Amino acid sequence: MAMSRLVASLMVTVAFALPRAGCAGSIEAQVRDSQGKPLADAAVYAIPAAGAPDARGKTVPIEQVDREFVPYVTVLQTGTVATFPNRDPIMHHVYSFSPAKSFEIKLYSGKSPMQVAFDKPGVVTLGCNIHDWMIGYVLVVPTPYFAKTDASGSARLRDVPAGGYEVRAWHPQQRAGAAPVALALEPGAARPVAFTLEVAPHRAKYKPPLDRLKY
Amino acid sequence: MRPRSLTRQAGAIKLNSLGARIVLFFVALLVIVQGLGAFLVIQANSQIARDTIDQELEQGERVFKQLLAQNQARLEQGAGILSADFAFRQAIASNDTGTVLSVLRNHGARVGANVMTLASLQNAVRADTLDAARVGKPFAYPDLIRLASVEGKASSIVNREGKLYQLVVVPVLAPDPIAWVGLAFEVDDRVAKDLNQLTGLEVSFASWTQLGSWQLHASTLPAPLREGMLAAFSGDEALGAQVREVELGGEEYETRVTPLESRPDKRIVAILQKPLLIGLAPFKRISASFFWLTAAGLVFLVAGSLAIARSITRPVHRLAEAAHSVQQGDYTRHVLVEHRDEIGQLAVSFNHMLDGIVSREKEILRLAYEDGLTGLPNRSMFNEQLGQAVRTAKRGEAPVTVLLFDMDRFKTINDTLGHPVGDQALREVGLRVRKALRDSDVVARLGGDEFAVLLATGNAGNARVVAEKIHKALEEPFVIAGQTMDMAASIGIAHYPEHGDDPNALLRAADVAMYEAKRTKARFAVYDPSHDMRRQEFLTMLGELRRAVEAGELVLHYQPKMSLAEDRVTSVEALVRWRHPMRGFVQPADFIPFAEQTGYISAITRWVLRRAIEQCGVWERSGLRIRMCVNISARDLQGGDELITQVSAALQAAELPAGMLCLEITESALMEDPLSAQSTLRRLRDLGVATSIDDYGTGYSSLAYIKQLAVNELKIDRAFVGGMEADRSNAAIVRSTIELGHNLGLTVVAEGVETEHELAELRRFGCDEAQGYFFARPMPAPALERWLSGARDKTLGPRSDVLGEA
After folding, report:
1. Which residues in chain B are contacts of A98 at CB distance < 8 A?
2. Chain A to chain B, count of Cβ pairs less than 8 Å apart?
3. What SS3 state is found at B245?
4. Residue A137 pLDDT level (bands cut at 50, 70, 90)
5. How many angstroms separate the CA atoms of A147 and A125, rounded?
6. Do B635 and B676 touch, CB atoms closer than 8 A?
7. Which residues does chain B have with pLDDT short of 50?
8. Contact of B573 with B778, CB cutoff 8 Å
9. What is the DSSP string of B365-378?
10. How far apart (Å, rounded) are the C-alpha atoms in residues B61 and B355?
């Protein structure tokens, strides 16, 4: 089921890119921390100089699996709707007090009782009111061109039409934002971008093991 | 000199007394030892108390810190729960100032925080429940936020505008921190009180103010003491000593200072205290017990050492008093022996000593007042008794009589039989006389052979009776060491008050009377003043006699001795006469005994010898050949050498043969010193001088004794010759004496021939020579010469002098 959705989503993306396939390029981003280590879960996004319209009708699920938000970092375009399906056998109480999007889904289980539309760019921190260690981030960006670094700290922004962009990088533990990189993307070109982010060490809050909780 | 202390009772112990010294010593010892002990104990106790208190303080401090930490943890926990409250976070996230302030107050009240402060992640105050003016200003404790951002929470004691707070800073999580909230819990007296109840310590909180002094924020101490404590800390910013003693309200507090916040500008301390008194209390009780124990000990010690001191000083005192009594002459007080200790032994020794002194004193008294030989009172005792009797007599006018007697010829016994026999004889005399008299009569031996009797109640008549008793007692012959001897006493009697009114006068009178008795050969004589006068004459005579010899007042008369066989004068006896310038002729009997007594007889003898031999020489040369007889005394005989020298010198001077001289010695003189007499007689015989025993028959000498003597002649005493007519026994004595004398080869001469009958008898008895008034009286040399020439032609007849051819 999840696989099919993923496939569907990819198909949509492909379908969206296809019309401009002949002139699209890509941005190859590499994000490292100040020690030069590859930084995962960093968001890299390119904002077109001409701007971009909000996404419409896009729905992104942010799941709760094994008392964690999955994915930990979600990057989405302004106007995207997120659902919070609960895959755990226990209830969660998802909330956000972030100015970019403040909401609350009181205790529930199963599928998301409501959809949350992220209509303002910014960082939205997700929490669960009954599981203090649960934390997730939603980065709302005003562009459809974004990607998340993998474990090797690299992210590829594909099918980016040629043109002028301001490329930015963001990471949940960053202390200060990295300077945006402005670039003009040639058609069909793969443009590398490197970011170095100073991050605080990520300290996950204590998460009690399941068996001990006996629920 | 009696020590003054002895005059006091032994009970009162004086400061300088032995007892006081003992008591003082022990009391001082106890006080010093106990004092030192108390000092050390108190020192140690207070140290222990201090250490105990310090330990308790230290423990208290640990508990205190623990409590503080627990309190802090509790507050932090509360703060954490609070900050995690969804509604709280929601309200904070709302960013509505009113809502935020309201929720801060509301939730702050839930956990009991006094002040709530909200700060942004950029350390800017967003809200403050106490002071709105702080909004927008930096949060005052950024370091707490820094700490909390790492630890998730932070807390500290802070001084906020003069008040102490426990400030807890926690993040507001959404779920990442979106703000910091500070919860301030005031540290007030209640907190101190709670801590006090849990730690048992006095708890105070103080901070160093910018004014440079300590400010007290909270304390369990009552208000008045707080000032004192601040004063104690004043100026000491560093609070150098962590532990110190602070005096508050007159009580020592062991004090420990615990820094709570030691940033230079914000020094906050907790002051933990415990009164030393609490630690010292048990020791105080011990000290009190110790004190009372010492006091009781002191009382017992004083009592005990007093008792001991008394037990020493009382017997010592008794000893001293007893010694004093002894000093006063009281030997009757024995010391009471209470204990067999050293002093008891001393007392026993003292009593022994006392007994010794008593017995020795008795012995000394006995020796002093008793005659060792006879056991009779001695002269001293007699004098004392006589004195006593005279004193009594003076009061009662009772008569006192003294009898004085000595043994006639006692020296003869001593000399012939030896002193032990003489002593024995004296003892016997004493015994007999003592036995013969009443017990009330005092019989004493005055010395030598002199005895005295004191008749305290007697009278003149009684004295005669007593004298007779004495004579009677001595009548019985004495048998001593196998020797039988006769003893006779001459007794002189003197009465008080007629003959003397004091002991000396009485004794002297008795002495005079005794000599009178001797002189008159009476058994006794009662003193008469005329005796005294005679005695007086004797005394003057002594001086006159000396002069008499030198001044030629002495003259010699010669009495012829007739040879009965030849009817002629063969010799003359030279007799000394004293032609006193005042008194005329003095009879030999009146001065010769005196001269013998005084020893002046030697001078007279010397003179007589020289004069008589000289006269003999004169007659010899004129053709008158008559042997010269000269009397010599016992004393002359004793000084043998001198006599021999004189005799030979005089004979030589007169150119006379020794045979022309005959020395006459009385029997009694021979008996006085028989040994020297014997030797002198022998030497005289060797010289060729004839010797004759004068007055034979009066001296009790035996013929056996006479035999041993180197004498040529025996002169029968006139008493026997003159008594022949009246008493036939006298004639028998004369006759037997003549016979015995002849048997011994001696010429026998009869003295004192006064009648024809006597002469006839003597002739009949074969007497060799005769002398007496019947023939001629003694006459001076010229008269004798005339008498001789006149008698030459006369025939022998009564009262006619018989002439002998030379």
Report:
1. 174
2. 26
3. strand
4. very high
5. 19
6. no
7. 1-11, 793-806
8. yes
9. HHHHHB-TTTSSB-
10. 87
Query: Which residues in chain B have their CB less than 8 angstroms from residue A129's CB?
Result: 86
Distances (CA, A) of B536 to B423, B498, B514, B530, B541: 34, 19, 15, 9, 8
Interchain proximity B178–A129, CB inside 8 Å: no
Return the pLDDT at B801.
Answer: 40
pLDDT reading at A17 higher than 80: no
- pTM, two decimals, is 0.48
Contact: B174, A132; criterion CB under 8 Å? no
| Maximum pairwise Cα distance, chain B | 219
Residue B93: its chain A contacts at CB < 8 A?
97, 102
Q: What does the pLDDT look like over B325-384, one tens digit per residue? A: 888 878 777 888 777 888 788 888 888 888 888 888 888 887 888 888 888 988 888 888
Give the distance, in angstroms, between the CA of residue B260 and the centroid of all CA atoms in the same chain: 90
Taking the C-alpha atoms of B416, B667, B519 and B630 in order, what is their torsion angle to the nearest 10 degrees? -130
Separation CA B113–CA B760 (nearest Å): 188
pLDDT of residue A3: 43
- CB-based contact, A127 to chain B, within 8 Å: yes
Instruction: Compute the distance between CA of residue B119 and CA of residue B247 in angstroms, rounded to an integer.
Output: 45
Do A119 and A146 touch, CB atoms closer than 8 A?
Answer: no
Alpha carbon distances (Å) from B74 to B111, B126, B168: 10, 25, 10
Give the Cα-Cα-Cα angle B154, B158, B164 (nearest 5 degrees). 130
State phi, psi for B183 to the nearest 5 degrees.
-110, 120
Cα distance between residue B139 and residue B116, in whole Å: 12
Write the residue in B84, B86, B174 that is nearest to A125 by C-beta: B174
Longest dimension (CA), chain A: 57
Q: In what helix (H) or strand (E) does residue B39 lie, and over which residues does it extend?
A: helix B18-84
ipTM: 0.77
Give yes or no for a contact between B203 and B271, defined as CB atoms under 8 angstroms apart. Answer: yes
Exposure class string for B84-105: b at 16+ Cβ within 10 A, else e: bbeebbbbbbeeeeeebbebbe
Record: contact B175-A98, CB cut-off 8 A: no
Question: Please, is B24 exposed, middle or buried when counting C-beta atoms within 10 Å of its C-beta (0-12, 13-18, 19+)?
Answer: middle
- Residue B135's alpha-carbon distances to B116, B124, B172, B177, B658, in angstroms, are 12, 8, 18, 19, 184
Q: Who contacts A146 (Cβ-Cβ below 8 Å, separation ≥6)?
A: A43, A44, A45, A46, A75, A77, A139, A157
Least Cα distance to A73 among A4, A146, A6 occurs for A146
**SS3 label, residue B639:** coil
Cα–Cα distance for residue pair B229/B214, rounded to 1 Å = 10
Query: What are the beta bridge partners of residue A33?
Result: A197
User: What confidence score (pLDDT) does residue B345 get?
Assistant: 85
Q: Which residues of B touch A132 (CB under 8 A)?
A: 84, 173, 175
For residues B328, B332, B336 and B342, what is the CA-based torsion angle, rounded to 10 degrees? 60
Residues 6 or more apart in contact with residue B608 via CB below 8 angstroms: B554, B556, B574, B576, B630, B631
Distance from CA of B260 to the nearest CA of A (A): 31
Q: HEC states along B384-412?
A: HHHHHHHHHHHHHCCCEEEEEEEECCHHH
| C-alpha dihedral, B50 to B55 to B57 to B61, nearest 10° | 160
Structure tokens at B369: 């007042």
Q: What is the CA radius of gyration of chain A?
A: 18
List the 133-172 stretch of A: residues with Cβ below 8 A of B: 133-135
Q: H helices of A18-130, where?
A: none
Least Cα separation, residue B114 to chain A (angstroms)? 27
Tokens representing A96 are: 């956000």
Residue A102 and residue B93: Cβ atoms within 8 Å?
yes
